[in-house]
Amino acid sequence: MDIHQLYGKRHKTNMWPRSAVTSHYHKTAFPDNAGRNSKFVLVFGDSHVRSLVDGYVQMPEGDLLFGYSSTPGACAAALRKEVLNETLPEEPDLLCLIAPGDNLLKTSIQQAGKEFASLIPSAQDRWNKVVVIDFPNQLKVELSYQEEYDRVAASMNVRYLSTVDHFPARSSDLWCRDGVHLSDDHGMPIFAQLIWCAAYFQLNVPQGIKTTPAAPRRAFRRVTRRLVVRGTPAAPTQRRDPYSWAEVTRGHSKKMSNSNCRRFHSVSRTYIF
User: Fold this and answer.
1) Less Cβ around it within 10 Å: N or C end of the chain?
2) Closest to 99 measured CA to CA, from 140, 152, 142
3) CA-to-CA distance for 173 and 156, rounded, in angstroms?
């Protein structure tokens, strides 16, 4: 078997304009009716948002409207500049900040954490509600970067939602050939669902609600806040999408609804802060 067949598919990179602020390629996409009849959520990130901006992967349908800002190759310092200078059609009800995951091997964990610590308050200065969503784990990058981001966010009392459990390294079809970006056909639809549900809970679930604590990891690993879905089979060939409660199948998500998320939270108690 060709080793490339083990990976999923990703669209060919389109040429984007360069940002006047950072000189990185940069593109935004906003719904025409942002903020009118539904809550408007802004998803801000690096190349991991690219498939959503270009429309190769669609956010699940529901009563939330999503806009996107993507700056491929941007570190936290560059994303901070884009945050401070972004022009929006409407003020978002929530910012979903995707933790920066591009070019991590070019910087130390300490430096990445320091830049991230400057990014978060800049985002909070512009928008009232901010939640940070973990960048999809990569096959070639250790989890220490994500753990440092989580530590920084926790020190600022900002929610950092880890997605690592939804992208097991044994399931290589979740990534494209570079081992960095999620595939459009398998990985990104799952990531889109995680973003949707994180946004819904942040906007609708009471802040003081009690949740069942996550099972501790091994002693040498620090426990992070996670979106955890129980019942995922171990065998990769039998893997189901994490949102079986929303009647989602691989690559084809049905409409997401408030009742889906309420039932998911009240029955499973798996949204862990």
Assistant:
1) N
2) 152
3) 35
Q: Which of 191, 199, 201, 172 is nearest to 241 (CA)?
A: 191
Q: Which of 94, 99, 119 is nearest to 201 (CA)?
A: 94
Strands 94-98 and 64-70: unpaired
Nearest to 71 by CA among 100, 91, 96: 100
Residues 6+ apart with CB under 8 A from 213: 272
Instruction: Give pLDDT tens digits for 131-180.
Output: 999 998 887 778 899 999 999 999 999 999 999 889 998 889 999 988 88
Closest CA to 204 of 138, 253, 271: 271
| Global pTM exceeds 0.70 | yes
**CATH class for the domain made up of 3-268:** alpha beta
Give the H/E segment covering residue 114. Answer: helix 109-126
- Residue 33 structure tokens: 């009716």
The secondary structure of residue 21, as a DSSP letter, is T
Structure tokens at 273: 């802060």
